[in-house]
Amino acid sequence: MPAATAPCFTPETKLGDIVAARPALARVFERLGLDYCCGGQRTLAAACATKQLDPPTVAAMLEAAAAATEAGPAEVDAAGLTLTQLADHIEQTHHTYLKAELPRLVEMAGRVAGKHAWRDARLPEVQAGVMALAEEMLSHMQKEEKILFPLVRQIDAGTRGGFHCGSIANPIRQMEAEHESAGRVTARLRELTDGFTPTPESCNTHRALLAGLAEFESDLHRHVHKENNILFPRTLARAG
Description:
Layout: H1 15-21, H2 26-32, H3 44-50, H4 55-71, H5 83-116, H6 123-157, H7 169-192, H8 204-239
């Protein structure tokens, strides 16, 4: 099977058509301050002119982002890492992604619910779910970075003192419970959005939100797998 090739975007391609076909590329437009929703009928050249951007350069950025999306995330051999390396990887990969992505999802969910709840009565619940998920995950990551992961690194280094909650098992159980909670909220969001599937009436912001939620779900599965199935059991085994 031949490898997929990145699409070719021309100065005459409309912003709305780009995001409708590839919702993940909305991030490029957001980063550049280009309105792909209400301004979706403008061509790439016209939109770039408003921001004094070079259309061929922006087109190249879009093609590179599309190619990266098609290639998929590069995964490490989590089982081959030390406890410290795995904790570092989770922070640098999954936590960094969530800290950047969750505020974006919250903003889009609010915008979509505010404009289109008349068309889909489920959108306010989607907005509430995204907000709750963001709050829960940001708090969850802070506890991992400030409490659990430092303990993991201590165990990996061979030092046994300084445990919080009396035992490493207690914060691990708490993190696992929070993983289950996040999974339930994400599953409900999938249900409310018909599997993160846009309708013909969905605006480009709505499409970008659904694509973002689908990507979040995929990242959450990989994130939780590395912790629940690799980091946590190995940490408990090392702690004795």
